[in-house]
UniProtKB/TrEMBL annotation:
Alphabetically ordered keywords of this record: Transferase
Similarity comment: Belongs to the sulfotransferase 1 family.
SUPFAM superfamilies noted in UniProt: P-loop containing nucleoside triphosphate hydrolases
Protein name, per record: Sulfotransferase
Every Sulfotransferase domain range: 117-206
Name of a matching Pfam family: Sulfotransfer_1
EC identifiers of the protein: 2.8.2.-
């Protein structure tokens, strides 16, 4: 199986074709943003799911139903993925919550024109940014709901309902608390050496320099 069988090359990036397609990327490019859209823009594995938990709770005044009844990929869908095309996002009332892993320079002309909001990393700051001023009781309630251990138990957020052929959580849960250097507690010396060898082979033509410990 070649890379062409697994990925779609889009603007210099390889997109897994399991959830992306030429049609989904065309939909993204033609998507019309509104000035009051709330867009969660993140690198993968950098707090996306956390933001998808916090933001709906803020916009509903802390109502737990907002995160307990709708999967996060539907409540804050990735615009570049196939799922977005079937959700009738054009008919959703404002403010819509949307997600993307794309960089700023990959955003559509519509996004750049209306300048949708970006998000901060705390409940109070995010609330203020969204012009939603929460009292201390609501902030505390949202924060408690979004404590990692609590969010991890939410089946609508932890991806445990995703079919095993897409994400086998018996091998690794989607939500796990990242700790710098924790790989040393997971991999044997031999496994680490094998990983390094494969990584060096796959990345040998990449000019960008990563700084590791």
């Amino acid at each position: 199986m070649t890379e062409a069988d697994l990925y779609i090359l889009y603007k210099g990036f390889y997109m897994p074709n399991l959830v992306h397609s030429p049609e989904s990327l065309k939909y993204y490019e033609e998507f019309s943003f509104r000035p009051d859209d709330v867009v969660i823009v993140t690198y993968p594995k950098s707090g996306t799911t956390w933001m998808q938990e916090i933001v709906p709770l803020i916009l509903t005044g802390g109502d737990p139903a907002s995160v307990e009844t709708v999967p996060n990929w539907d409540r804050a869908p990735w615009l570049e993925q196939d799922r977005a095309r079937v959700l009738n996002l054009e008919e959703r009332p404002s403010p819509r919550i949307l997600t993307t892993h794309f960089r700023y320079d990959m955003m559509t002309p519509s996004f750049l024109k209306v300048k949708p909001k970006n998000l901060k990393d705390s409940v109070t700051k995010i609330g203020h940014f969204l012009n939603t001023f929460l009292d201390s009781e609501v902030v505390e309630k949202i924060a408690e709901r979004c404590v990692f251990k609590n969010m991890k138990q939410n089946k609508m957020s932890n991806y445990s309902t995703v079919p095993c052929d897409i994400m086998d959580q018996e091998k690794s849960e989607f939500l796990r608390k990242g700790i710098t250097g924790d790989w040393k507690n997971k991999l044997t010396v031999a496994e680490a050496e094998t990983f390094d060898a494969v990584y060096n082979d796959k990345m040998k033509n990449v000019k960008f320099k990563f700084v590791w410990d």
